[in-house]
Structure formats: C-alpha cells, structure tokens
Automatic annotation (TrEMBL):
The keyword Hydrolase applies. InterPro entries: AB_hydrolase_1, AB_hydrolase_fold. Transmembrane segments: none annotated. It comes from the Bacteria. The keyword Transcription regulation does not apply. This is Alpha/beta fold hydrolase. SUPFAM superfamilies: alpha/beta-Hydrolases (SSF53474). It comes from Dietzia aurantiaca.
Amino acid sequence: MIHALPEDLPARALDLPAVPDLDVLVDKLAGQIAPGSVMVGHSLGAVVAMHLAERYQTLVAGLVLVTAPVGTEDPDAAAAREARAAGLSSKAYEEIALDGMELVYFDDRGLDPQVRAERLRAARGYGPARFAAHSVALGARPDRSSFPSQARCPVLIVGASDDQVVPTAAQRAWAVANDACGGGGPVSYVEIRETGHMLPVEAPEELAREIYAWVREAVR
C-alpha cells in the first residue's frame, strides 16, 4: 500500500518489535515516529496505533484505523491465542499463517496460489517470535469503543465490505457510535468494496486514494 501513495505523501513501514506488552511496545515505537506524523494501522497495527496515540498525545497528527479490533478479548480466547502461538516451530508457524485464508480474504482470493505464496513470504518476514509476542499483546488490548471521538487528532476508520474477522457491521456501528461522517470531521468512515480483513493487500490503490484524500481534507 505504501508504494501506491503519491510521492507528495511519503510513508514508511514501522518495525514492530517482538514485545508482548502494549505499553512497552509503543514506547519502543515512539522513537521511530516523527512528530506530526499520520499513523496508519491495520488489525493489530490499529490496536498499536490507538495505544500510541493515547500514550503520546502530541506525537501523532492523524490516525487511519483499518479493520481495527475494537473491544477487549474474552480471557479464555486470549489464553487460547497465547497458548497456540507459544513455542511454535517454523513449520507449525507457517501452517498457521496459511490456515483459514478463506476467512481473511474476500470471496475465493485466499485460495489463489499467488496470494498464498505472498502470505507465506510475509509471514516468514514477520516470524514466530513476533507472532507469539503480539498474540499476547492483542489478547490484552483495552476496549476502544469510544476512542475515535475522544482522540486528540482526526481519525479515519476504514472498513472492509466483507470482513469476517472484524465484522463489517461492527465496524459500521463503531463509526456511527463515534459520530463518523463521510469526511472532513474529527472522525470519518469509509468502506472499501469487495475486500475482506486483508484489505491493505487486496485493494492497496483504493486504500491509498482514500488515505490521501482524507489527509488532504482532515489533517493538512
């Protein structure tokens, strides 16, 4: 998605360290972020982005939250997630990365051999140590039901039309509960058609266009 952004909106990917505690994780990340930046987070990245914006309120000038988990996780589910991710061999980790791809991509994209190969390449770069640590962090996330309307910066919520991980209806309800408008207000909501939870890799150009337009209208 970064490569789809116009040249006058430079961006770079942040390196999320293998840290299981959200406070420590964002403290380590804060040094990578220039004051006045717009932070874009997808899924776990959105959880991290909200936590960082709350902890460092003057650092971030805008937030883009793509298919973001909102509520806390059930303790039993969090414990099961942590146990599943702990001590994985490389083979077991890669099997998990490819498991259930039909649930995270739109329609039958998850069955496409090229998509599966790209997913495996990305998973290998991410690695089992980060997967294990971030599984703990995700399971301990705070409730963010009212975060967008309380944030100290403009927020863009981006939903996928067919998200089976963070249900589309829940994303719409979250946006409505936080007084999201179509653009220009403190909280905005857009929904990208024919996408699932992996929206950034399914529709990078469209996501980039939405981010660019929102930054120009709401942030600058």
